[in-house]
Design goal:
The chain is mainly α. Helices cover 82% and strands 0% of the residues. The two termini are 15 Å apart.
């Protein structure tokens, strides 16, 4: 019976990993595509007669940021539902909302076709995406870590971050492929729509997987327990957001904002910018899972602190390599690969660290809010802050300063971690929860 029981838990855990991570992959695929096509979207939706390209790009990133600021709303709304009625039904709901909103972006009329209505329609769909994305992370991480075997939360949680890399790589790959096979005119006219429309079949596949997902043993075991005092939860949310702000800011700076920055500030072509982005995301993907696994052995603090300190030390030198005209493309490629790899050191242990900060009864809400708030401020605003500051100061080093400063602020918060444990409560594993349930 014990063998059968363990085999059943293993199968359920694998299904949870796939179903939990697939929605996250689609979410970040879409957010990546929006960032990679920012200059084209700016021209199609935010540039009326007489408008400047810089002004349009700022408006595009403002829409980008708006979606992030609705993430905390989605985290609170869907997180509360997930902590009350269960992880599974809410994850089904958020993947449906994300799929519908993203697909519709690919079918929107442009400014030339609908006038001032076009940017408002785009902004509305971005708000829907922000709400659904806010409900995605908390549920996905809760499912993946609550099904994790003992001593494997870091590994299981890192797979959530790994799907971020896969999503961004898929978005960059789709953009690079279209930029290669289509002319610039075709890409700007209708080609940019294709990656958004592709979300429909991807989302339907994710929905099917989530409909087959079991509820987590931890949620079933803890359903009747009282929630902790709100003050403790709020404190943990703020602390959690501080611990991952460097991850959020450096991740979006190096992995998403980079293409538009290389084009607007350094004069790179669209294809060159996308190649650099693919290399950065490959570096990110390579280190995530090893970092999560390492955090199960050495603790979350040691691995995440290493990543944050490396960004502080290396951000400016890495950016200077990209700016230097005499440096070979091989060296520049290694620089952006390294930038992504350093971010992976924070992203690997991050989900498990956040999950371990909250009791089961408030985990979906708490870790979702911490992640959403940090990303709303430090990821969603990254493109807007960097673009606007470069416009005002003329300094092309702003992206490096932004990543370095935010990681420097994260260091004291990460130092409060004690070993591999991370806050007010430690997550129940699948086995621990089933024992409690009797």
């Amino acid at each position: 019976m014990t063998f059968i029981h363990q085999k059943r838990n293993t199968q359920r855990g694998r299904r949870a990993l796939v179903a939990g991570s697939v929605g996250n992959l689609i979410e970040w695929y879409e957010f990546g595509v929006y960032g990679y096509f920012a200059t084209i979207i700016a021209a199609r939706f935010f540039t009326p007669e007489g408008g400047s390209e810089a002004e349009a790009l700022v408006k595009t990133y403002a829409s980008f940021a708006l979606a992030f600021f609705f993430r905390p709303v989605g985290a609170a709304l869907f997180g509360r539902l997930g902590d009350r009625v269960g992880r599974r039904p809410v994850l089904v709901l958020v993947i449906t909302l994300m799929t519908v909103a993203t697909t519709l972006i690919g079918a929107l009329p442009t400014y030339a076709q609908a006038g001032a209505l076009a940017p408002w329609l785009l902004t509305f769909l971005r708000v829907l995406q922000g709400l659904s994305a806010g409900g995605e992370f908390g549920g996905a991480v809760s499912v993946m870590t609550e099904f994790a075997p003992p001593g494997r939360r870091g590994l299981y949680g890192s797979l959530q971050s790994f799907t971020v890399a896969l999503g961004l790589l898929a978005g960059a790959g789709a953009a690079a492929l279209l930029a290669t096979v289509l002319t610039e005119e075709q890409l700007g006219s209708w080609g940019w729509r294709l990656p958004f429309l592709l979300t429909l079949p991807l989302g339907l596949g994710a929905l099917w997987l989530r409909l087959r997902l079991d509820e987590t043993p931890a949620f079933v075991a803890e359903a009747a327990r009282e929630t902790p005092p709100p003050r403790e939860v709020v404190r943990a949310v703020v602390l959690g957001a501080g611990r991952i702000m460097g991850w959020a800011a450096a991740g979006y700076t190096f992995l998403v904002v980079l293409p538009s920055y290389l084009q607007s500030a350094l004069g790179a072509s669209f294809q060159q910018a996308l190649v650099a982005t693919v290399l950065a995301n490959l570096g990110f993907a390579v280190t995530i899972v090893p970092a999560g696994l390492l955090s199960d052995r050495l603790g979350r603090r040691a691995v995440m602190l290493t990543g944050a300190v490396l960004v502080v030390v290396l951000a400016v030198p890495l950016l200077n390599l990209l700016q230097a005209p005499g440096v070979s493309n091989t060296v520049k490629g290694a620089a952006v690969f390294g930038a992504g790899a350093v971010v992976g050191l924070m992203a690997g242990p991050g989900p498990a660290m956040l999950s371990e900060m909250f009791p089961t009864r408030v985990r979906y809400t708490g870790l979702g809010l911490a992640y959403a708030l940090s990303n709303a401020v430090f990821s969603g605003c990254a493109g807007l802050i960097i673009t606007e500051t470069i416009e005002r100061t003329g300094s092309v080093d702003i992206p490096a300063y932004y990543a370095a400063v935010t990681c420097a602020v994260s260091v004291p918060a990460l130092l409060t971690l004690s070993g591999r444990r991370a806050g007010v409560a430690v997550a129940d594993t699948a086995e621990e929860a089933e024992e409690k349930a009797g």
